[in-house]
Backbone:
């Protein structure tokens, strides 16, 4: 593992590029299969990635967590597993936010069973449920921390005020928001707060769900069932502007010998306060490419071109979060 980075002040060290294990759950990513998913996990590990991000709800029945156990069970002590609780799927396919203490505890126990381990390294509250007081959810995770079911606690999809309220009851070591070249809302408040508190920021969507991987052509038609079609960044004028932006990234990449995906993830990793970037992949080739995004910086002239590309892109319409 090159230049490992510490999660908060936990003593847990992780690779800059982490594998996001949502695509292998096969719920909104198409053409996912067991063999490719295991190969993706194994390849990530072989490339020096030690950080695997999953959740109770990644898969109708925890398929993502089960795949991690199957693919990397023998490497348990060499890898860092983050999972999340507070969100699940009903049998009819509807998504339910439930962050009550009893639910968080039950989901944590189930996650440990699926992962075939007796602890995770990082346990996040996946999202607030809008009803349960955050102090109650935080209290539950604090108990799981004290019992050693997790080595650290994090929060995801909370705003600044909510994160602070949670942190007051249960010390937060990591925060997981959306963040990438075109989604930079956290720079105004969450990122500075995390930096001042020594909390790791571990963003999701560094590739903006594949848009910043640069492989979706301008005339790409999303197949039925591809979960991306619903987001504004893949629609109409926003799509055209994003494609123009990706073309400029491609030009920069060609000059410095990097791909669009590597430029996009590298930018995230070089922002102050960012610990790791959660790069989703469903194929070994994809994580092989993004694994090459860490441990380098753009030459000054290319960094300037990137700033210019951002200026020309202008502010995107908020693409939303989970
Ligand atoms: N806390 C939360 O609420 C939350 C929400 C979302 C995600 N997450 C976490 O963050 C991770 C990242 O998010 P994500 O997986 O949704 O999106 P992402 O990392 O922004 O994009 C991943 C997608 O980009 C495409 N891709 C990746 N590498 C590529 C490459 N080298 N070449 C071409 N295409 C490539 C693949 O899609 P195709 O092959 O299908 O084009 C892949 O599924 C998740 O896996 C999950 O662990 C957390």
Residues:
């Amino acid at each position: 593992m090159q230049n490992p980075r510490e999660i908060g002040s936990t003593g847990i060290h992780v690779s800059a590029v982490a594998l996001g294990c949502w695509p292998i759950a096969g719920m909104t990513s198409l053409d996912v299969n067991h063999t490719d998913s295991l190969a993706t996990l194994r390849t990530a590990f072989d490339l020096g990635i030690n950080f695997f991000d999953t959740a109770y709800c990644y898969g109708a029945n925890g398929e993502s967590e089960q795949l991690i156990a199957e693919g990397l069970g023998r490497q348990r002590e060499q890898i860092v597993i983050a999972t999340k609780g507070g969100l699940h799927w009903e049998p009819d396919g509807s998504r339910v936010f439930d962050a009550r203490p009893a639910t968080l505890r039950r989901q944590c126990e189930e996650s440990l069973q699926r992962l075939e381990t007796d602890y995770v390294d990082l346990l996040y509250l996946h999202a607030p449920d809008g009803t349960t007081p955050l102090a109650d959810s935080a209290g539950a995770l604090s108990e799981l921390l004290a019992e050693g079911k997790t080595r650290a606690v994090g929060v995801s999809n909370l705003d600044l005020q909510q994160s602070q309220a949670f942190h007051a009851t249960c010390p937060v070591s990591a925060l997981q928001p959306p963040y990438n070249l075109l989604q930079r809302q956290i720079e105004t408040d969450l990122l500075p707060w995390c930096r001042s508190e020594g909390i790791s920021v571990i963003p999701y969507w560094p590739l903006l769900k594949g848009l910043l991987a640069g492989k979706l052509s301008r005339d790409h038609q999303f197949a039925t069932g591809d979960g991306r079609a619903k987001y504004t960044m893949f629609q109409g004028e926003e799509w055209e502007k994003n494609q123009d932006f990706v073309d400029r990234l491609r030009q920069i990449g060609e000059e410095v010998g990097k791909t669009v995906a590597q430029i996009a993830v590298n930018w995230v990793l070089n922002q102050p306060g960012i610990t790791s970037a959660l790069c989703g992949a469903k194929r070994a080739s994809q994580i092989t490419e993004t694994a090459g995004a860490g441990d380098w910086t753009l030459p000054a002239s290319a960094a300037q071109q990137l700033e210019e590309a951002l200026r020309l892109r202008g502010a995107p319409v908020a693409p939303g979060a989970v």
